[in-house]
Specification:
Blueprint lengths: L13 H12 L2 E8 L2 E8 L3
Antiparallel strand pairs: 1-2
């Protein structure tokens, strides 16, 4: 898969684009995510 607009994500869904940029700007965070079976607390530790 090739994503030619990875800096802007102009073709991505607005909600998903916002979430991706939030994770990019804040790579360490704890978020309550909603799924088909309810809510789940997720720790994102994306800093390398």
């Amino acid at each position: 898969m090739v994503i030619n607009d990875c800096k802007t994500l102009v073709h991505a869904d607005e909600k998903e684009r916002t979430r991706i940029f939030d994770l990019f700007n804040n790579p360490i965070q704890r978020v309550m995510e909603a799924g088909p079976k309810g809510e789940l607390l997720v720790d994102y530790l994306l800093k390398i």
